[in-house]
Amino acid sequence: MSTGQYETSVGSARPRGGRLPRRERRAQLLASALEVFSAQGYHAAAMDDIAERAGVSKPVLYQHFPGKLDLYLALLDASCDTIIASTRKALESTQDNRQRVEATMAVFYDYVSSDSGAFRLVFESDLTNEPAVREQVERVTSETAALVAEVIHEDTGLTDEQSRLLAVSLVGMAQVSARFWLTEAGGIERADAAALVGGLAWRGIRGYPRAD
């Protein structure tokens, strides 16, 4: 992800304000860092940019995050947790498997279309050569697939290995199609696109009979 790749603007810096409780200041710094990283990528972003965007001095920023990588990893961890938790919620929202498939697909489409741009840290990071970053990115696939695989295993009686392979395939379909939709097929409404791909996934997975 390089500078200028996205049309997203980092925007103007926030005015400097008074002291905030540590938790609120940390949240403010993370929000500002997300804007900068998602617009510029890791390598082009500078701690100066983030401090300016947050309306704080650089020493204040370093009080909360020792370095740029620490800040990036904190954001990445939160972003990964968000999509994993949303997937769990979608699967637990109903006992109807067709609705589960559609809800899970919708999670990824909602995620990539969020104004925050957090998906770029997870799916389009320019720092995947960093082991700690790569581990977090892979965690999204592995943990969301594990949640889906558990449902497949319980409902079909397929082995854990078979269930996991199918689950990874479904998660991969969701990730790739959602990102393609965002950049190449935005003329289709988000809900319609998610339902279209969810229908494709359901036609495949329903071929495995439920185990009584």
Question: What would you say this structure looks like, in words?
Answer:
The chain is mainly alpha-helical and 212 residues long. The protein folds into two domains: 22-66, Arc Repressor Mutant, subunit A (Orthogonal Bundle), CATH 1.10.10; 76-205, Tetracycline Repressor, domain 2, CATH 1.10.357.10. The protein is built from nine helices and no strands. Helix 8 (160-184) packs antiparallel against helix 9 (190-205). The longest helix has 26 residues, at 131-156.
Number of H- or I-type helical stretches? 9
CATH architecture of the largest domain: Orthogonal Bundle
| Overall pLDDT level | 88
Alpha-beta content class: mainly alpha
SSE pattern: HHHHHHHHH
General shape: elongated
Number of discrete domains: 2
Distance between the termini: 48 Å
Q: What is the share of helical residues? A: 55-70%
Please summarize the sheet with the most strands: none
CATH topology of the largest domain: Tetracycline Repressor, domain 2
CATH class of the largest domain: Mainly Alpha
Q: Tell me the strand percentage band.
A: under 5%
Radius of gyration: 19 Å
The count of DSSP E runs of length 2 or more, i.e. the number of strands, is: 0
Poorly predicted ranges: 1-10
CATH superfamily of the largest domain: Tetracycline Repressor, domain 2
Give the topology, please.
Blueprint: H1 22-40, H2 47-54, H3 58-64, H4 68-92, H5 97-112, H6 119-123, H7 131-156, H8 160-184, H9 190-205
Helix pairs in contact: 1-2, 1-4, 4-5, 4-7, 5-8, 5-9, 7-8, 8-9
